Amino acid sequence: MGSRAAPRSRCWYSPPCACAYLGVFAVGTLAGMALVTTGLSLPLAALTTRFPASPRLVRLATGALSLGFGVWLAWQIGWQDGLFTATPNWSPH
Predict the structure, then answer these.
(1) How confident is the model at residue 32 (pLDDT cuts 50, 70, 90)?
(2) Phi and psi (nearest 5°) for 9?
(3) Rounded to 10 degrees, what is the CA torsion of 11, 14, 18, 20?
(4) Which of 63, 83, 80 is closest to 72 using CA atoms?
(5) What's the longest Cα–Cα distance across the chain?
(6) Which helix (H) or strand (E) holds 2?
(7) Eight-state DSSP code of residue 86
(8) How high does pLDDT run on average in the chain?
(9) CA 22 from chain center: how many Å?
(10) pLDDT number for residue 5
């Protein structure tokens, strides 16, 4: 007959429970980011041990990719979505 939303608990309306929920969410987010970062760094570490001349190239490539992504993201959010313009036009998707 369709799905129902989970019943709301009174606990979420109390500040201590809300803070505990926020803390659990934050710890989960940090753990997830640490796992993804470790998963991405292991192949690069293996590459640098296999090819002794590659650490400098890997540092330059990852730095350039990170800088490029940051510039693209700033452009996308700042000007395309209108954060830095007079009339922001953001819509969630």
Answers:
(1) very high
(2) -95, 145
(3) -80
(4) 80
(5) 63
(6) none
(7) S
(8) 84
(9) 17
(10) 56
pLDDT given at position 69: 95
Domain positions in the chain? 17-80
Question: Looking at the whole model, is its pTM more than 0.90?
Answer: no
Q: What count of residues does the chain have? A: 93
72 or 47, which is more confident = 72
From residue 27, how far is each of 30, 34, 52, 68, 74 by CA, in Å? 5, 11, 36, 29, 27
Helix, strand, or coil here: 15?
Answer: helix
- Which of 17, 62, 12 lies closest to 40, judged by CA? 62
Residue recorded with tokens 């939303």: 5
